[in-house]
Sequence to fold (215 residues):
Amino acid sequence: MIKIAPSILSADFSKMGEAVSNLKNWGADWIHFDVMDGHFVPNITFGPSMCSAVRPYSDLPIDVHLMVEHPSEWIIPFKNAGADIITFHVESADHHLHSVLQQIHAAGLKGGVVLCPATPIESCIHLLGDCDLVLLMSVNPGFGGQKFIPETLEKIRILKKAIQARNLNTDIEIDGGINPETARACIEAGATVLVAGSAVFKASDPSDMIRCLRS
Ligand code: DX5
Ligand code: ZN
Fold:
């Protein structure tokens, strides 16, 4: 079943508890939590304290997307703040990717890597056995509301084949510019989790939008 992970980057920051408590009623599966440090990406959002603040408002899994230079520094703080899943960028300054994944799993969380649009699938092939999910960016990280990069579809197809060839059931999460049209194309290409920020939070009927994205 396709999972929908609304990104709270597009929520009203002044009412984050309310935004998060709505997600389950709207039919969301995960809470996508975009962490930005102002170095890895030219924007700053929020950290573990926001995670612990919203944790009591929903029992949905919190899917932390670390857009930070040193992801390994944030595994325990986010674990303690109630996160369930942590993904980090292969392009970050933490070069020992397999070790960072081991640290995430040692903390009892699900873990995966994130690839920017220009980063080839080959960079995560040897990690697939250790990834619960792989997150493919379909926009350049840093901001919501951007346009879907169509070359992402080919990357999804290549990744799907690699996962099937290894008899794995690694989730393929797509992040950025997801709307009803791009959602359909991603699902057809093999995506299993869709992040949607502006499509959900700017929708007149978010529940209907989530239903539409999933179908
Ligand atoms: C961008 C974030 C995405 C973004 C998606 O750096 O990683 O999760 O919030 O927003 P939309 O769905 O509006 O493109
Ligand atoms: Zn994200």
